[in-house]
Amino acid sequence: MKRSFAVGLVLMLITLTGCVGKQLSYQDVQPQEGMASIYVYRPTNFLNSAETMILEINGVESGLLSHGFYLHSFTEPGNADLLLKKNVFPYNEYGSIALKDIKAGQNYYIKADPIALAGFDMILMDAKIGRQEASATKLFINE
């Protein structure tokens, strides 16, 4: 019994090591020519901490967002719709925000602030405060 438990534990650990990625400290990214930068970050918070959300920008998946991490994307000037959702159901919105009049060369910081019952307030932050808060998070890169 003990041996089968130990073998099972070792196999589980080997399986989990295949899902390893890098955690990088926050980095400022220079906007591409004619584009704006959008940072979406989730401060470390106990509320909804087990939830890993899919971030969509204008209907295109941008990546997975966990607590204590951020995602960065470039977008064209104009408007952008950001949506946080889970991949369990075809459409289940947990937080969204519509950005209007995005300007090229600008950085936009969106805070995904958890609320009760597994939702998120998506808040457009002042650039200085947003950068400060986002810099306390990390970027996860799959390997």
Listing every helix as H and every strand as E from the N terminus to the C terminus, the arrangement reads HEEEEEEEEEHE
The helicity comes to: 10-25%
Let me know the average pLDDT.
81
Indicate the CATH class.
Mainly Beta
Spans of at least 5 consecutive residues with low confidence: 5-19
Total domain units: 1
**What's the N-to-C terminus distance?**
35 Å
Can I get a quick summary?
This protein is an alpha+beta fold and 143 residues long.
Describe this structure in words.
- With 143 residues, the protein is an alpha+beta fold.
- It has one domain (22-142): Immunoglobulin-like (Sandwich), CATH 2.60.40.
- Helix content is 17%, strand content 47%.
- The strands form three sheets. The protein has a four-stranded mixed beta sheet with strand order 5-2-8-9, covered by helices on one side. A four-stranded antiparallel beta sheet has the order 4-3-6-7, with no helix packed on it. Strands 1-10 form a two-stranded antiparallel sheet.
- The radius of gyration is 18 Å and the shape is globular.
